[in-house]
Amino acid sequence: MKQPLILEIKGNALDDGPGIRSVVFFKGCPLSCLWCHNPESKRMGMEIGFEAKTCVGCDTCINLCPENALSRENPFFIDRDACTLCFECVDACPSGALTRIGTYMSVEAIAEQVLRDKPFYDTSGGGVTLSGGEPTLFTGFAGELAARLKASGIHTLIETCGLFDLARFDESLYPYLDLIYFDIKLMDAALHAHYCGVANETILYNFRALHARARNGGVPVVPRTPLIPGITDTPENIHAIADFLSSCGVGEARLLPYHPLWQEKNEKIGISMEKDHTPEMDKWLDRKVIDECREVFETAGIAV
Questions:
Q1: Within a domain: residue 180?
Q2: CA–CA separation, 58 vs 160, rounded Å?
Q3: 77: in domain
Q4: pTM here?
Q5: Which of 109, 110, 112, 120 has its CA nearest to residue 12?
Q6: Residue 16 falls within a domain, yes or no?
Q7: Sheet strands (E) in 105-198
Q8: How far is the C-alpha of 15 from the C-alpha of 293, rounded, in Å?
Q9: CA 243 to CA 204: how far, in whole Å?
Q10: Bridge partners of 5?
Q11: How many Å from the N-terminal Cα to the C-terminal Cα in the chain?
């Protein structure tokens, strides 16, 4: 069973499913969406983050780095080609500007932590959300965790990009889920490949299969579409998604408003924002655009 790195376990979450929840963020994703709001979750391996606003300029890390990988002349402070992830700089940093991104945790350790909040789940109708990154990259581990939660009477939800082997998902994870949030980003396969790194045929196939099952008493599936300026919020894409969902018999979907705060996270892990960057990406999404997208879905008979 492949063990993932865990980015964090966020308690008292109100935006990742019903009620008060704990969200377990897995590190690693098969997609590479340009606008990823958790870019630190893309890569499966451990990373070092650097936050310039927190740095006090003491140069402790620069002086002790055995690979000379740290310099204020580097665009993102860390030369990641030279860095060997020894983490000596992280351990010595007095301000916390340098951090480890990703921690190995066992199923039991995660379960123990989230079970502490079970009274809040029970009172609010909440539970635990498996997110990321992409939890289905680690189907065996995620399934074991979901089974542990189900045995404890905890509502378990997964947030997925939809790119996974359906047979393996069915065997290891599906029986222990109470709800699936399934992202549908772009309908055009070429655009999906351009902006997300892979085509979308498997994603759409998996959605159709899971939603058809949900209509016959299976685990409920709620599609979600992030509204990215000039990319996913275009009239062509929104109408195409609405038509697809309508053809599947979907009655409810979610639209996720865009915000530009993720770009600071990119800088923290040394990712340049030159590719396909537009001025619109530096702004919060206009409420008018959200309302227009909502109207397209509702006209197609899909509640938002």
A1: yes
A2: 41
A3: no
A4: 0.94
A5: 120
A6: yes
A7: 127-131, 155-160, 179-183
A8: 20
A9: 13
A10: 27, 104
A11: 38
Domain residue limits at 168: 5-44+102-299
Distance CA 90, CA 34 (A): 28
Structure tokens at 81: 């080609």
How big is the CA angle at 282 (ends 295 and 51), to the nearest 5 degrees? Answer: 130
Instruction: Tell me phi and psi for residue 74, to 5 degrees.
Output: -70, 140
Can you say whether the dihedral through the CA atoms of 199, 204, 210, 213 is positive or negative?
Answer: negative
- Of 159, 172, 136, give the one whose Cα is nearest residue 44: 136
Q: How many domains does the chain have?
A: 1
CA distances from 43 to 23, 28, 80, 256, 281 (A): 19, 5, 14, 23, 22
Neighbours of 243 (CB within 10 A): 13
57 occurs within a structural domain: no
Q: How far apart are CA 111 and CA 151, in angstroms?
A: 11
E strand residue ranges, 103-160: 103-104, 127-131, 155-160
Phi, psi (degrees; rounded to nearest 5) at 233 = -95, 10
Can you give the pLDDT of all 304 residues of the chain as single tens digits? 689 999 999 999 999 999 999 999 999 999 999 999 899 999 999 999 999 999 999 999 999 999 999 999 999 999 999 999 999 999 999 999 999 999 999 999 999 999 999 999 999 999 999 999 999 999 999 999 999 999 999 999 999 999 999 999 999 999 999 999 999 999 999 999 999 999 999 999 999 999 999 999 999 999 999 999 999 999 999 999 999 999 999 999 999 999 887 888 888 999 877 677 778 888 888 899 999 999 999 999 999 9
